[in-house]
C-alpha cells in the first residue's frame, strides 16, 4: 500500500498545481512532537499555512529552506506555519533528529488518517493556506519558484501588508435574458464589489457611471455581462488595463442566481489573481 502511495505521489508531483478555494477549514486536533495538543481553532484570527510533508519525500526536503524563510519573515506577525508530518514508519525521535538536521524550528504536528482525509491530501508536499476566518483559500501541490512567489503574495494579501493600493473602476453589468429582473444585475455588481474587496485588501474600488461629470482615475476598468436563463446565470467579467488599453483578463462563472455571492466570488478570485500578478 505504501508503495502505491509513493508511486502516486511521484506521478502527481510531475505536474505541480495550485487551486483557489473558499471553504471552512477542518478544525483538527493533533499532537505535536512533545505530546502537546494543537488545534486549528487555537489560531483563529491568524493566517495559517499547513505544510504536509514526510522525511522520505525529496521535494519536501527541497521546500524546507523556503518554509524556514517564511517562518522567519512572518513569525512576528499574525501568521503561523504548521508542518504536518506524514511519516508512517518513523519514530518521534527520528523525526526530531531530521528536524534538527534541517534546522526546522516551526511548529510540527503528527498527522492521522482523518486529517489526511479531511484535507484531501494525495501528494506531498501539499501546502494549504487558511485565512484568519479559518477558511481554506489556497492550496498548492508541489513547490517551485512560481509557487513561492504566489504563496508569498497570497500571505501578504491576507495579512494586508506589503501591497500597493490599486485603483479599480467598476462599470455596469449588462443584463441579457428575456424578462430578466434588472435588480439581478445590480445584485451581481454589489456581490462582485464585495468579493473583490475580500480577495485583495489593497484594491480601491469605485463605481464608475457612464457619462458622469466626475472622471475617475483608475488603473483597471471592470465591466461585464450577466446572461440569465431561467433560475441560472453566467457572469462574465472583463478587465482592461487603462494604461495600455488591453483586455488583461476575462473570467466567467455559472450557477444558480440565488447563489450570486458564490458566482461572484469565483470570478473575483480570477480577476484578483490576474491583477496582482502584473
Give the class from helix and strand content and strand pairing. alpha/beta
Number of structural domains: 2
CATH class of the largest domain: Alpha Beta
Strand order of the largest sheet: 1-8-7-4-5-6-2-3
Q: Tell me the number of helical segments per DSSP (H or I, 4 or more residues long).
A: 7
User: Which regions are unreliable across 5 or more consecutive residues at pLDDT < 50?
Assistant: 1-16
CATH topology of the largest domain: Glutaredoxin
The profile of the biggest β sheet is: 8 strands, mixed
The assigned CATH architecture of the largest domain is 3-Layer(aba) Sandwich
Radius of gyration: 22 Å
- Spatial separation of the terminal alpha carbons: 44 Å
Helix share, percent: 25-40%
Supply the CATH superfamily name of the largest domain. Answer: Glutaredoxin
Mean pLDDT: 84
Order of helices and strands: HEEEEHEHEHEEHEHEEEEH
Q: What sort of overall outline do the alpha carbons produce when their principal axes are compared?
A: elongated
Strand content: 25-35%
Q: Can you count the beta strands?
A: 13
